Amino acid sequence: MQNNSLWSDALRRLLANRAAMISAVILTLLILSAIFAPFIATHSYAYQNLSLGATAPSAEHFLGTDTLGRDLFSRILYGARVSLMVGFVATFVALIIGVTWGIIAGYYGGRIDSIMMRIVDILYGLPFVIFIILLMVIFGRNIWLLFAAIGAVEWLTMARIVRAQVITIKGLEYVQAAQALGVPNNRLFIRHIFPNILGPIAVYATLTIPQVMLLEAFLSFLGLGVQPPMSSWGTLIRYGVESMEEYSWLLIFPGLTFTITLFALNFFGDGLRDALDPKISSD
Prior knowledge:
Elements: H1 2-16, H2 18-35, H3 37-40, H4 72-108, H5 110-124, H6 128-139, H7 143-153, H8 156-170, H9 173-180, H10 185-221, H11 233-242, H12 249-276, H13 278-282
C-alpha cells in the first residue's frame, strides 16, 4: 500500500510539471508520426526527381526538397523511425547490461564487486567511438549492429548508478532485518530492492535516449550510420551542412526537429527525476 502511495504521489507531481507534460505530448506526437509515417508522408522517402532538384518549401513540398529532388518532410518522418528506434533500442540494450551488472556487483559485494567495478573502470578508459567505428568496419554497416554497438557502450554509467542504489538499499534496517529472519535472496530482491531502484533506472533511461541519439547522429554525420536511401536525422543534418549556404532549409528543418526532440527528452527526464525524488522538487 505504501509503495502504491509513493507511485501515485510521483505521478501527481509529474502531471503537475508543465514542462514535462508538454514534452510528453511532443514525444508522443513524434513517436506516432514515426509509426504512421507511410500514411502521413506525402511522397516516398526514396523517390528522386532529378529534374526538380533542390527546391524551397512550397505547397507541394512544404519543407522543400533536397538536391536529388526527394521530399524533405517525408525523409524527416522516416528518419524519425531510425533516430527514435536507435534511441530506444540502444537504451534498452544498455539498461539490460548495466542493470544486471550493477545489481550483481552491489548485492553480492566483496571480491565480486571489486572485480566487476574494476572492469567498468577499465572500459571507461577505452575510446568507445573508435570501438564502434571498428565494429562497423569489420562487420559492415548493419543498422541492428549499430543499435547493439551503441547500447553496448552506454551501460557503464547505469551499472554504477544501480550498484550504488543497491548498496544503499541493502544497508537499510528493514532489509537487514529481513535478511536476519532468513528471507530468501530472490524474495528479498523482488519485494524490497528492485521496486526501490526502478525510479533511478527510469530517470536515467530517459536521459540516456538523447545521448544515444546524439551518438548515432555523430556516426551518421561521419558517414558510418544508416545507408542510403534510408535516412536518419543525423544523415539529413550531414547533407544539410554540405549545402547549407545554398539550400539552408536542408539543415534548418532536420536540425530543428532533432533539437526539439532532445529538449523534450531532457525536460521529461528532469520532470521524472523531480517527481520520483520529492526532496529535489521541494528545494
